[in-house]
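REVIEWER CHECKLIST
Item 1: Sequence provided? yes
Item 2: Single chain? yes
Item 3: Sequence as submitted:
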Amino acid sequence: MNSNKLNWNSRIVLFLCAILLIVVLYVPMWSIELNAPQYPEGLGLSIYANKIGGNVDIINGLNHYIGMKTLHEKDFVEFIVLPYFILFFSIFCLVTALVARKKLLYTVLALFILFGVLAMADFWRWEYNYGHDLNPDAAIIVPGMSYQPPLIGYKQLLNFGAYSMPDIGGWIFILVGLALLTLSILAYRNKSKIITYKKSIHASVLGLLFLLTNAFACNTIPNSIKIGKDACSYCKMTVSDNRFGVVLVTEKGKNFIFDDPQCLAAHLHSPQNSSIKIGGIYFTNFIGSHLLLNANKAFFVKSIKIHGPMNGSFAVFSNKDSAMRYIFNNTGSIVKLNELLQ
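Item 4: Structure as written out by the authors:
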C-alpha cells in the first residue's frame, strides 16, 4: 500500500462530502428566531448561501421602529461569492477523492478550517453592524441599547428572545469539516495499522450518516419540566405538581410548558395561538416516575376525583392497565385527546 495514497474508504467519504456540499446550496445554512408574547410561534430568518428566507418583511417592519437597517439581499456581497466557495470545496473534495493524495486531503482540510473561521468572523461583523448602526431618528430609542443578535445561542433583545443556530446547511458544513478532520488524522497515523484504519473509516462513514440524518430531523424532543422553577405558559403559575405537567413542542422546536392539561387546552383555544403548528404534545405520567409521555402513546382519564392545579379533571397514564386500575379504584372514564383539548 502506497503510504501517500488514500484508500478506497477515505475516497468514498470524500465523494460523500462533495455531494453534501452541493446540497448546502439548496438548504438554509443558518437560522435566527425571534420569540415574543405577541408572536407565540416566533419569527424566523433563514439564511441560505444566496438569499434570505423567512419572515423578512415582518422583521424589517419591526426593526424600522428601533432604527435598524432593513434586510435586502442585494446589500450582501456574501450572497454572490458564497455559492462559488461552496462549489470550490465540493470540487476540491471530488478531485482529492479521484487523485487520492494525502497532501491534497491535508490542504482541503486547512482551507476548509480557514474558510470556516473567516465566514464566522464575517457573520459576527455583519451582526455587530446590524445591531449597532442605528438610525438616530428612530421612533423608539433606548439609550445605550444595541440589538446585535447572538452569534450562536440565545440573547434577550428588549421583549424578544433571539436564538441563533446552524440550520441544515450549517450542520452539513460542520459534519463535512469533522469528516475531513477524521480522515486527515487517520491518514497521518501509523501505516501498519491498516485494519484499525479501515474500521475507523467505516465508523466515520456511519457517524457522518447518523449525524446528517439527525441534522435534517425536526427537533420536536421536549425539554424536561423543572418543578418549582418553570412557569406555565398560559396561567404563568409556577409548575408545582409533577403529576399534571404538559409540554407542547412546535414544528420549529419551541417549547411551551403548562402546569395542567386545562391550561394547554385554553392556550390552544386562544385566538393569538391559532397559527401554532404542533410538532408534539407530551404529558406527565400521573403515576410512577412522572416521565413525559408522547400524546400518541398515552391514555387519558377524566374523573371528578382528579383535581389538577387549575381545577382540571384529567390525568394521563402510560398504559391502559394503569388507567383502568385508577378508574376501578376511584371513578372516571378513558377519553380521547381531542376531548381533553376541547
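Item 5: Key structural point noted by reviewer: Residues 102-132 form the longest helix (31 residues).
Item 6: Recommendation: ____
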